[in-house]
TrEMBL record:
Domain of life of the source: Bacteria
Protein name: NAD(P)H dehydrogenase (Quinone)
Keyword Cytoplasm: no
SUPFAM superfamilies the record matches: Flavoproteins
Any one GO CC term of the record: cytosol
InterPro entries: Flavodoxin_fold (IPR003680), Flavoprotein-like_sf (IPR029039), NAD(P)H_dehydrogenase_qn (IPR051545)
Entry-linked PANTHER family: NAD P H OXIDOREDUCTASE-RELATED (PTHR10204), NAD(P)H DEHYDROGENASE [QUINONE] 1 ISOFORM 1 (PTHR10204:SF34)
Taxonomic lineage from the root: Bacteria, Pseudomonadati, Pseudomonadota, Alphaproteobacteria, Hyphomicrobiales
Family: Belongs to the NAD(P)H dehydrogenase (quinone) family.
Domain Flavodoxin-like fold: from-to ranges: 1-140
Keyword line: Oxidoreductase
Entry annotated with the keyword Electron transport: no
GO molecular function annotations of the record: NAD(P)H dehydrogenase (quinone) activity
Length: 193
């Protein structure tokens, strides 16, 4: 299976980058064809410009500035997000990726006023997230990233399929042991993706 792995952490020596590398390695070990998309390393521009917004509904012209990213998404059969959660949301670069790449004609189409998915070719979805907050604080805040992954993205891809959701909470108080345990969970999950 061809798996697109989206990563959005700017620091090369970070635990988030370690999780990304482990995800890539484990998916490859499992025999998947992996497309690692490190948004910071690729200098992805997350800004939805005035031009982008004016052309937003004009497929295929709306894809011109992000054509390579659209092609990668269209080829994917699996999708994995590897990202930190900042202030109970995705980093701006990842949010910008969704705004600029998941366009009408690419990820959805409006048919008689109803949204129809164009991402049914993606058969599997996973997220590997790190939170500074504890599970309770994330729950009390409504845990928007979890809802986006398990409800919004899942509905766009295939609402009937399960989602692999892995989260290391309380990174503000993590230890080498908690990080190692979570890294092992990621390894096992991606080997079985």
């Amino acid at each position: 299976m061809r798996v697109l792995v989206l990563h959005s952490h700017p620091v090369e020596e970070s635990y988030g980058k370690t999780l990304y590398r482990q995800t890539l390695d484990s998916l490859r070990q499992a025999g998947h064809e992996v497309d690692g998309c490190d948004l910071y390393a690729e200098n992805f521009d997350p800004v939805l410009s005035r031009h982008d917004r004016l052309a937003y509904h004009d497929y295929p012209g709306n894809t011109e500035l992000v054509k390579s990213y659209v092609e990668r998404l269209k080829r994917a059969e699996g999708l994995v997000l590897v990202t930190p959660i900042w202030n109970f949301g995705f980093p701006a670069i990842l949010k910008g990726y969704f705004d600029r790449v998941w366009l009408p004609g690419v990820s959805f189409e409006l048919v008689d006023g109803k949204v129809e998915s164009r991402l049914r070719h993606i058969r599997k979805l996973a997220a590997v997230l790190t939170y500074g907050a504890t599970p309770f604080r994330a729950f009390a805040a409504g845990n928007p990233p979890k809802k986006i992954v398990k409800r919004v993205l899942r509905a766009q891809i295939n609402p009937l399929r399960p989602v692999t959701f892995l989260a290391h909470y309380d990174m503000n108080n993590c230890t080498p042991e908690t990080r190692a345990r979570f890294l092992a969970r990621v390894k096992t999950s991606m080997e079985n993706f």
